């Protein structure tokens, strides 16, 4: 690695960009938290930067192999992307390959592996066929202007590329065109769409839940029973209120996590990990969680307390109905409470007394090995399936960090898994497996 790795702030400063636009921020969030993303935005809106920033943040400086592949339908676009990467001065080596350039020249360039390889379908496919570089470290595939690269003319090469990447974890497709058919060989699973082609109106609904008593605790529990098994955030204005609400939910056997400014950074990170992997469906939080945290699609939020300003109300509500999906914000208020001016007449949600279906309970386990130990998500999955005896979708979300990993498993099996896997070896290294 020839240079030190630059942060996003340093890259933006180098490019002379004061801040990302709305599309780039939303794309960044989607790319950082989802495995399959389709980014649709008009030409000239900064899509290249939108996918390159999160891509660079996901690279591992210790791996001296190709980690990401960017396929562009034309040489010009391939060269342009590579130039943007160079201008960013990220500290990672990047190379570009395309037809019409001497193959021997490519081979010399690829001898010292780039972290990011950009190229046209034919030439990349050719290199893969000839084993010029290893594909087993490639975790991200980006198809820029996929409406062109997935056209019939490129089908053979694109099929070959898509089927030659055994460790792929993320696919990002970008286009400036609506309604393009994505072929089956791309294997997109529940892609997240970030669509800025015609700024789609948010599908957010805001409703009221009326509490007959000034102390809204019982109504909150009824509301959560009514809303059932889906991810949501409960917003409070003070950390003292969070502790009180948390105790009440615990007394009512409602699984949840907490997230506020006074917590240790490590505890905050772990609260988000558990929320992302479904160990906790609910997060009780202050406005700290209204912006800039990496969490998945949230079906609802509840304002246990109303914020003082419209801006916070909007940011909290923006946690749901993201990426053009529906979502609901509930204002939980005492029937005699006067609502602020920024809240119009709300439709009242009637709470039914029915209990939701029983949820499957998950527990998060900590593994004392990570990327720096050359451990991959595949290695962890193998350990839990082969030695742990888990089957199918019992193994939940795996989050791999530099020096550790977290995985969600069925609660009823977590003690047995700890007994089987703690102090066993993974990649010739003894690992600890504990509950967090």
Provide structural commentary.
- This protein has 436 residues and is of the alpha/beta class.
- The protein has three domains: 188 residues, 3-Layer(aba) Sandwich (Rossmann fold), CATH 3.40.50.300; 145 residues, Rossmann fold; 74 residues, Alpha-Beta Plaits (2-Layer Sandwich).
- 32% of the residues lie in helices and 20% in strands.
- The protein is built from 14 helices and 20 strands.
- The strands form four sheets. A seven-stranded parallel sheet has the order 3-4-2-5-6-1-7, with helices on both faces. It has a seven-stranded parallel sheet with strand order 10-11-9-12-13-8-14, with helices on both faces.
- Strand 16 and strand 17 form a beta hairpin.
- The radius of gyration is 24 Å and the shape is globular.
- The model has no long low-confidence stretch (mean pLDDT 88).
Compact description:
By secondary structure, the protein is an alpha/beta fold. Helices cover 32% and strands 20% of the residues. It has helices at 8-15, 22-33, 47-58, 75-88, 103-111, 121-129, 146-149, 155-162, 217-227, 239-251, 265-276, 310-317, 377-387, 414-421, and strands at 36-40, 68-71, 94-97, 116-119, 140-143, 170-175, 192-195, 204-211, 232-235, 257-259, 282-285, 300-303, 327-334, 347-348, 362-367, 398-400, 405-410, 424-426, 429-431, 433-435.
């Amino acid at each position: 690695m020839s240079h030190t790795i630059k942060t996003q702030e340093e890259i933006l400063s180098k490019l002379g960009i004061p801040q990302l636009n709305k599309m780039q921020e939303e794309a960044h969030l989607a790319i950082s938290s989802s495995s399959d993303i389709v980014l649709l935005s008009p030409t000239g809106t900064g899509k290249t930067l939108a996918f390159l920033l999160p891509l660079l943040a996901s690279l591992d400086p210790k791996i001296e192999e190709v980690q990401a592949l960017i396929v562009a339908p034309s040489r010009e676009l391939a060269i342009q992307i590579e130039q943007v990467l160079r201008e960013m001065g990220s500290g990672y080596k990047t190379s570009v390959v395309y037809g019409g350039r001497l193959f021997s020249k490519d081979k010399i360039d690829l001898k010292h592996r780039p972290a990011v390889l950009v190229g046209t379908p034919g030439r990349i496919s050719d290199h893969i066929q000839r084993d010029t570089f290893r594909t087993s470290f490639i975790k991200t595939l980006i198809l820029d202007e996929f409406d062109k690269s997935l056209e019939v003319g490129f089908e053979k090469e694109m099929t070959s590329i898509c089927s030659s990447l055994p460790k792929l974890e993320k696919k990002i497709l970008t286009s400036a065109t609506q309604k393009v058919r994505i072929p089956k060989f791309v294997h997109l699973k529940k892609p997240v769409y970030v669509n800025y082609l015609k700024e789609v109106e948010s599908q957010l609904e805001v409703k009221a839940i009326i509490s007959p008593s000034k102390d809204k605790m019982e109504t909150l529990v009824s509301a959560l029973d009514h809303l059932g098994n889906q991810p949501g955030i409960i917003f409070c204005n003070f950390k003292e209120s969070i502790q009180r609400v948390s105790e009440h939910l615990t007394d009512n056997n409602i699984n949840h996590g907490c997230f506020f400014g006074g917590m240790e950074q490590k505890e905050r990170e772990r609260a988000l990990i558990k929320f992302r992997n479904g160990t906790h469906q609910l997060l009780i939080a202050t406005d700290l969680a209204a912006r800039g945290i990496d969490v998945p699609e949230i079906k609802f939020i509840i304002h246990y307390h109303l914020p003082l300003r419209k801006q916070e109300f909007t940011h909290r509500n923006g946690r749901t109905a993201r990426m053009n999906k529906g979502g609901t914000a509930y204002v939980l208020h005492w029937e005699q409470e006067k609502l602020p001016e920024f809240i119009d007449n709300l439709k009242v949600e009637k709470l039914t007394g029915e209990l939701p279906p029983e949820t499957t309970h998950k527990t998060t386990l900590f593994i004392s090995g990570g990327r720096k130990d050359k451990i991959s998500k595949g290695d962890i999955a193998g350990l839990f399936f082969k030695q742990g005896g888990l089957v199918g979708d019992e193994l939940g979300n795996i989050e791999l960090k530099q020096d550790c990993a977290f995985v969600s498993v069925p609660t009823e099996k977590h003690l047995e898994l700890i007994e089987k896997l703690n102090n066993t070896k993974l990649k010739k290294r003894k690992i600890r497996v504990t509950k967090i």
